[in-house]
Amino acid sequence: MATLVGILSGSASAVFLLALDLATHVREANVWLIALLPLAGFGIGYMYYQYGANSDRGNNLLLDALYHGEKPIPLRMTPLVLFGTIFTHLFGGSAGREGTAVQMGGSLADQLTTWFALSKSSRRIIIICGVSGGFASVFGTPLAGAIFSLEWMLIRKFRWQSIFPAFLAAFIADWVCEYGWGVGHTMYSISEIPAHSFVNLLWVIPAGIAFGLSARLFAETGHVVSTVFKKVISYPPFRPFVGGILVALVVYFSGTTTYIGLGVPRIVEAFENPLPWYDWLVKTGLTGLTLGSGFKGGEVTPLFFTGATLGNALSAWIPLPLSLLAALGFVGVFSGATNTPMACTVMGMELFGIEAGIFLGLASLVAYFFSGKGSIYASQNIEAKYLWRL
User: Fold this and answer.
1) Which residues form the domain of 359?
2) Are 123 and 237 in the same domain?
3) How confident is the model at residue 387 (pLDDT cuts 50, 70, 90)?
4) Number of domains the chain is built from
C-alpha cells in the first residue's frame, strides 16, 4: 500500500508542478492577469463553499483525521486544492505548493481506507505515507519528506510501524515524480562553509533566535488575518474576493511582482547577492493576506523565501557567509513555523550538502524553541514542545 501511495502522490505532485510552472509563466507574460485576482478569489471561495464540505480545512483536516480518527478525507480535496492553488498562482496570489501536495497525497492515500477496510492504526500509517510522498515529491527531498510526516503528525509519539512505510512512500513518490514524469526541482548551493569553530557556531544562535521569532510572526499573521476576515465578512466567497483586491493593490502600487507566487527566483538570489532588508516582511504580509483570506496553496515555499531573505539581511550584522545565513534562514524559519527541526535539518543537508549539517541543525533547533507555542497549522499537537509554558 505504501508503494501504491507513493505512485499516486508522486504522480499527483508531478502533474501539479507542471501545471504550476505553466501558470507562473503565463502570469509573468501577462501581468494584467493580477487585476483579475479578486474574481479568481471569489471563484475559489465559491467552489469550496458549495462543494468543498470540510476540505476547506486543508492540512488541519489531515491532522484531525490522524489524531481523532474522523471521517475519511474526501477525495474531492485533491481536485479542489489542485485547481484552487493553480488559479491562486495564475492570478498573482502569494502562496506555496507544499500544502497542496500534502493534501493531495493525504486525500488520495485515505481512499485506501474505504477500499481495503483498514483498521484505525493502519489508516494512520497510510495517511502518514500520503503526507510523506506528497512532501518528498514536491521538493525532491525523500528523507526529509518521510521525517516531516512522522515529526509533523506525531509529535513525540513515533510508532515504529510507521517508519518503513513512510520512507518507502517518500522514495517511490520522489522517483516517480523526477524520473517517471521527468519533473526536476530547484537547486540551491552554499558557496562558502566556514570552519566549525566555537565562535562561528555561537553566531548561529542569534540568527536562530531571529528565525524563530520570524516564524512566529509568519504563523500569527496568517491566523490573525483569517480570524479578522471570518469576523468581518460572513459570506465565505467574499473573503478571498476582498483579499484579492488588497493583494492586487499592493502589487500595483509597489510596481513589482517579486513577492507574489512562489518567489523562487528571489530565494535563489538570496544565496548570491545582498537584497533589501524588508523582503522577508513583505512576503510574510502578502502570504498571510493571501492564505488568510481564503486563497489556496502552501506556506512552506513562502517560509523558504522569508527565511532566506531574512538570513540575507542578517549578513550585515552577523559575520558568517551570506549564502550560509540564507540557508540557515531557509530551514530555520520553516522549523519554527512547523515545529519540525529534525525534518528541516535533514532537508537542509539534502539540498545544501552534509558539510553544513551542524550549522543547519543548530539553527533549526534554536528557531524551533524560540518560535514559541505556535504553528502555521492550528490543529498541530505541540503540547509537549516545552517542559515549561511559553
Assistant:
1) 198-370
2) no
3) very low
4) 2
